[in-house]
Amino acid sequence: MKRKNVLITVCCTAAALAAAQLVILGFRGGIGPLKFLKENRMSKLAGNAAEYHVENLSPLPDSPLQGKRLLFLGSSVTKGAASLDVSMADYIRVLDNCEVVKSAVNGTTLTDTGAGSYVSRLKAIDTAQTFDAVIVQLSTNDATRKKPLGEITGSREITAFDTGTVFGAMEYIIAYVQETWDCPVIFYTGTKYDSSTYQAMVDGLLKIRDKWDIGVIDLWNDPDMNAVSSEDYALYMHDPIHPTQAGYLRWWTPKFERYLYDFLG
Fold it and tell me: Which of the chain's ends, N or C, has fewer CB atoms near its CB within 10 Å?
């Protein structure tokens, strides 16, 4: 009995030392221990294997996006929360040899509820910059937190939009971008998952598209995206919302590229 207790103690001590080493490595790497442990776990996903790493890719010859400057505005899906902070924005930057500004903060919302919201971050960007397009994520966080959808107004005046609602914030963003940079606005949706609230947001986005003549990369309703095999889905998605690097590179990025080639061409 004593020998068994000693063995358990030794095993527990070894596990604690291993965990401590990971924490120390995290501090030495300049990141917090929790983030380090998360990244260590994410790096072991099959969908985040080295073959999908952005540094192992080469630019495409004569991309229609070459030399363009794109702003990606979003939350965890734009940031790459389950893919070591790599998303389609990073793949497009490398593959299409263009400049990308990625304003993405995990857990943030379209609705203007604080300093990290889409609206507040957009207004903080230097207006002296120029962009060829602003690409905005239809955030799942608004759906998860049951933010009010609001109404799609008949106005185009920027002061008419209630940024405390989803549709009001979306219309404000469109108006702000057009007034500030006079460039195309493109919203994109996530792929299909079980959320009636997000479905309502997608439906509203399509009505806003018709009103403002903006672009929409509609992954939610895309039949090709919804026909993905269960085997590929397991590789491409860490959870119903967040892709892995394989998901971004093989599944999402080609859709973005084809749409942007046509829309911005």
Answer: N
What is the C-alpha separation between 24 and 29, in angstroms, rounded?
9
Residue 251 scores a pLDDT above 50: yes
18: left (phi over 0), alpha (psi -120 to 50) or beta: alpha
| CA distances, 71 to each of 35, 68, 101, 135 (Å) | 26, 10, 5, 6
pLDDT in tens, 217-250: 999 999 999 999 999 999 999 999 999 999 999 9
Query: Rounded to an integer, what distance in angstroms lies between the CA atom of residue 5 and that of residue 195?
Result: 49
pTM: 0.86
Consecutive H or E run containing 216? strand 215-217
Q: Where are the beta strands (DSSP E) in 66-150?
A: 69-74, 99-104, 133-137
Q: Topology of 63-264 in CATH?
A: Rossmann fold (3.40.50)
Residue 45 CB-density burial (10 A; 0-12 exposed, 13-18 middle, 19+ buried): middle
Instruction: Say how many C-beta atoms besides its own lie within 10 A of residue 24's C-beta.
Output: 12
Distances (CA, A) of 126 to 11, 79, 123, 182: 54, 20, 8, 14
Does residue 31 register a pLDDT over 90? no
The mean pLDDT value for 3-30 works out to 44
Two structure tokens written together for 64: 């229609």
pLDDT value at residue 16:
44
Give, in order, the Cα–Cα distances in Å from 91 to each of 57, 68, 87, 197, 222: 8, 14, 7, 29, 21
For residue 14, pLDDT over 50 is answered with no
Q: Name residue 217's beta-bridge partners.
A: 188
Q: Average pLDDT, whole number, for the chain?
A: 90
- Domain borders along the chain are 2-40, 63-264
